[in-house]
């Protein structure tokens, strides 16, 4: 799906596909051309094997979450422009670990902020 301006040049593009093969294909055309990436990986389990208290049924272990994310973030870094940004939605139980992975790949100095969200009482995000 593309959103075009009057000059018929693509200004925005929504990519729908299995994330890893899609990212690899994007490298061919969009290396260092992407301004913004948003990812919403599956919420994981904590060290005790407890699922995050969410409606997600695709929770995975923390180690598997980080192992799954690393190659995708490495490709995402190659896709981003120098002034590009990446946003990641992740639950509190894994946020610190995912941030360390981001720091390793993108550099700690490139971290801008964490934006917590307020949820209804009794729901953990």
Spell the H/E element sequence. Answer: EEHEHEH
- Gap between N and C termini, in Å? 30 Å
Annotation field: number of helices: 3
**Beta-strand content bin:** 15-25%
The number of domains is: 1
Strand order of the largest sheet: 1-2
Poorly predicted regions are none
- Identify the quaternary structure here: single chain
Q: Please state the average pLDDT score.
A: 81
Beta strands, count: 4
The helical percent reads 25-40%
- The Cα radius of gyration reads 16 Å
Helix/strand/pairing class, anyone? alpha+beta
Shape from CA axes?
A: globular
Task: Please characterize this protein's 3D structure.
Helix 1 runs parallel beside helix 2 and helix 2 runs parallel beside helix 3. The radius of gyration is 16 Å and the shape is globular. The protein has a two-stranded antiparallel ribbon. The protein is of the alpha+beta class and 125 residues long. The protein contains 3 helices and 4 strands. Helix 2 links the parallel strand 3 and strand 4.
Question: SSE layout and pairings?
Answer:
Layout: E1 2-4, E2 10-13, H1 19-30, E3 34-39, H2 62-79, E4 80-88, H3 92-106
Parallel strand pairs: 3-4
Antiparallel strand pairs: 1-2
Helix pairs in contact: 1-2, 2-3
């Amino acid at each position: 799906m593309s959103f075009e301006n009057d000059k018929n040049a693509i200004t925005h593009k929504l990519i729908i596909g299995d994330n890893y093969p899609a990212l690899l294909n994007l490298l061919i055309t969009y290396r260092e051309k992407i301004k913004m990436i948003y990812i919403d990986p599956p919420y994981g389990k904590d060290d005790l094997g407890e699922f995050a208290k969410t409606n997600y049924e695709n929770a995975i272990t923390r180690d598997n979450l980080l192992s799954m994310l690393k190659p995708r973030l490495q490709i995402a870094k190659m896709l981003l422009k120098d002034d590009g940004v990446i946003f990641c939605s992740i639950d509190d139980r894994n946020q610190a670990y995912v941030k360390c992975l981001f720091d390793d790949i993108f550099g700690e100095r490139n971290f801008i902020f964490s934006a917590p969200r307020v949820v209804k009482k009794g729901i953990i995000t």
